[in-house]
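Continuing the batch. This is chain 6 of the set; chains 1 through 5 are on the previous pages. Same settings as before, nothing changed between runs. Recording input and output for traceability.
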Amino acid sequence: MTMGKITFYEDRNFQGRSYETSGDCADFSPYLSRCHSCRVESGCFMVYDRPSYMGNQYFVRRGEYPDYTRMGMSDCFKSCRMIPMHRGQFRMRIYEREQFGGQMNEMMDDCDSIRDRYRMSDCQSCNVMDGHWLMYEQPHYRGRMMYMRPGEYRSFRDMGYSNMRWMSMRRIMDTSAVSDLVWSDWNFQGRSQETSGDCADFSPYLSHCNSCRLESGCFMVYDRPNYMGNQYFVRRGEYPDYTRMGMSDCFRSCRMIPMHRGQFRMRIYEREQFGGQMYEMMDDCDSITDRYRMSDCQSCHMMDGHWLMYEQPHYRGRMMYMRPGEYRSFRDMGYSNMRWMSMRRIMDTC
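Output for chain 6:
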């Protein structure tokens, strides 16, 4: 089991007395009168603003967290739980009602919206069979979160979440083999922040991000928070200046791309809502016009693997990262004036 190490500090910006742990701690009060900042040296943890792993919770991985108020916590840290890394398959069942009632769906990968994928309006119980997961109250992994270990959860209401809906789910992956380091200034100058996974907003850590260095793995970087705006694919290497990458603004968020070693399969559609001409592909396509005589692609269904879509043939122009899932309207995703004319698999070559 991969061990972690986290240090908590009484005051903001890592000041005052400190307390270090490599595992769960149900109550910080015997060690510190208050906990306003923390530094994760290794591993992944959930931190809570109430003792005994209750209250609002927040996922933290390797990095610095200088002020709990920037993390959406209503009070300072009161307890923490270490998340063991899981290297096998992931599997969970979600249910529309309590006590495993109503509609049921089984998932083995991330789901950014149960409404879009499963037509479920709510999730009130679940059975986590394999792996460790995060559940979010809003689609696209936003809002408050809840850490789920393997086990049966028959009623979220009985767990103290009576007024919340859980609308997206994400696996907690073993991301120890990937690392992305971003700097505030060009040419790797100024303050820096390291991440080994997704980061929806760099602003709590850096006021601006103008360069990055990728030590391993593959990431998408975005020029707006919450994985929005122009996006750019980066693999191992140095990127000293965001303006050379076709970004309209500096880096605001990033998403780690898990490596896929199985088959690749996707369906592209000429119109929204899976309408019009349809083709299925299992390999790269440098021009849908030349191969399929399609003039446009407005929706798609990603069955297997992770892909990049480009607005011009031959993998040129702006790009969009696509994970497994149904994408019924690119226009509704904010790409109303763009055509996607070539597609490429993200292979295990990072």
